[in-house]
Amino acid sequence: MENQYYTLMEKQDFFEIIENKYGELAIFIDARDDEPHEPLLQFDSKKTALLRRDDRRSIILDNIDPETAAVLAESEVVMIVELHGEVVDRVYAVAVENVEEIVLNGRRTRADELFRAKSKEEILKSFGAIKTWTGGATK
Predict the structure, then answer these.
(1) Alpha-carbon distance 32 to 22, whole Å?
(2) Three-class SS of residue 121?
(3) Which of 45, 5, 4 is nearest to 125 (CA)?
(4) Are 62 and 102 in contact, with CB atoms under 8 Å apart?
(5) What is the predicted pLDDT for the residue at 113?
(6) By 3-state DSSP, what share of the chain in percent is helix, strand and coil, each rounded to 5?
(7) Range 64-79 burial, b when 16+ CB lie within 10 A, else e
(8) 60 and 10 in contact (C-beta within 8 Å)?
(9) Cα–Cα distance, 17 to 29 (Å, whole number)
(10) How far apart, in whole angstroms, are the C-alpha atoms of residue 53 and residue 59?
């Protein structure tokens, strides 16, 4: 089992949101290499959404058009379309969760960000430690 004790936060600089005649939304973003696992779209009902693709990677969608925001806030599910250029790589449905505020740890930049646990306590918390044993020479 692969454990990684960090979360990769990627800002999607360009994305498109389209609405069909039934009021359903589809969000077009760049494709990622790995498959999503239990994805969820969190939306602050203003201008920012966070697509949690899995427990290690999230995509930030910022500056959502106000007209689109109203429709997105009422949506229960959206379609995510991941593209390599103009070629569709994958399409999947994602539940929409309306939240008060999108919580992003660390500082945001235009480039990808890597957030690493900074203390022993954060590592233990991410790991889910329930017991700790000490070994080796005594002090």
Answers:
(1) 28
(2) helix
(3) 5
(4) no
(5) 46
(6) 10, 40, 50
(7) beeebbeebeebeebe
(8) yes
(9) 9
(10) 7
Element (H, E) at 130: none
Q: What angle do CA 60, 32, 67 make, to 5 degrees?
A: 35
User: What span, in angstroms and rounded, lies between the C-alpha atoms of 113 and 42?
Assistant: 19
Length of the chain: 139
What residues contact residue 102 under an 8 Å CB cut-off, 6+ apart?
42, 44, 48, 49, 50, 60
72: part of which helix (H) or strand (E)?
helix 66-74
How far is 42 from 101, CA to CA, in rounded Å? Answer: 9
pLDDT tens digits, residue range 63-120? Answer: 899 889 999 999 999 999 998 888 899 999 999 999 998 876 544 444 444 444 456 6
Q: What is the pTM of this model?
A: 0.70
d(CA 45, CA 43): 6
Q: Provide the 10 A C-beta neighbour count for residue 51.
A: 23
